[in-house]
Structures are given as C-alpha cells and as structure tokens.
Amino acid sequence: MDRENKQDNLASIVARLHTAIHSEGVGNGGRAALRKADPSQPLPMSFYRFAAHYLPDHWENNRSAWICLVSSLANIRAQSHDMKRAFGAELAKAGYTELRMNKLLSAKSDMLEHQVRQISRLFQSKAINANWVDPARLLLAKDNTAREAIRQQLATDYYKSI
Question: Residue 125 belongs to what domain range?
Fold first, then answer.
C-alpha cells in the first residue's frame, strides 16, 4: 500500500473512531471509560469491546498509541474532528505557546502521548475543531523519517497561523 492510501486509510479510521465514540451506542459511561483509558493501567472491558469493533487488526502492536488516540478522541466534542482544519494551525489559534509546541514536536512516546491528551483537553475546553489525523500519524509513525515529516508539517501549519 502506498503512502497516500495509508493516509486515506488512517483518515477513515480516525473519522470512524470519532463517530463511534460520540454515538449513542457508546453512551456517556462508555465515553467516560474511553476518556480515562491509560496504557499503564488495566483497561476497562468497555475499551476492549470498543477495540474489537472499531480498531484495526493488530492494534495491539502499537497499543499505547491507539489507547492515547481513542482517549483523546473521547475527550473532544462530537463533530470536532474536522479534516479541513490543520492541527498545527488550530494549536496556534488556541494560543498554544511556542514552548509547548517545541515540547510536542520533540516529545517521544510516553511524553508525546501525554502532550496529545493535554491538547485534547485544551481543544475540548476551547471548543476547537481540528484534523485529528495529524496527531494520529505522529503517534503511529513507524520511523524517524516519517515522524520528522509530520513534525515539519505541524510546525509549518502552526507558524503560518501565528
């Protein structure tokens, strides 16, 4: 599968996850459990139920990143995943400082996940819509070259919006 198809696939997965999380089928209690999911703690059964229906096969191979993504999508409002709003640009509009942006772009695994969760809470509190495929790509990047390309795009979008 070429890179564009992988991105389209991830875009459709993120959209499907966001829609499912905010559906009546998951409900407020299920959404709260997903919001609180933490890879360092035993996961609630509701997370496994959700994962069985919505996460891609072999999600366990990148367990922590998928848990962070689901938790972050559960933190944001319904309809706030917007493919037309660049994540980096929305960070700038939210008043995300350069210092924090530097921490996000230089963060590795656990700290990156922490930063993404914090951003989801920030976007929730400020009612900000953004393209959550960008942080998904960053969380799930397999190598440094891919990760650096994503960081560069986030930084570019951020600085163009300041």
Answer: 3-160
Distance CA 138, CA 105 (A): 9
Q: What is the pTM of this model?
A: 0.93
CATH of the domain at 45: 1.10.520.40
Q: Answer for the pair 161, 92: CB distance below 8 angstroms, yes or no.
A: yes
Domains identified in the chain, total number: 1
pLDDT truncated to tens, each residue of the chain (162 aa)? 444 445 559 999 999 999 999 998 899 999 999 999 999 999 999 999 999 999 999 999 999 999 999 999 999 999 999 999 999 999 999 999 999 999 999 999 899 999 999 999 999 999 999 999 999 999 999 999 999 999 999 999 999 999
The number of residues in the chain equals: 162
- C-alpha distances out from residue 151 to 22, 35, 38, 104, 111, Å: 28, 25, 24, 9, 15
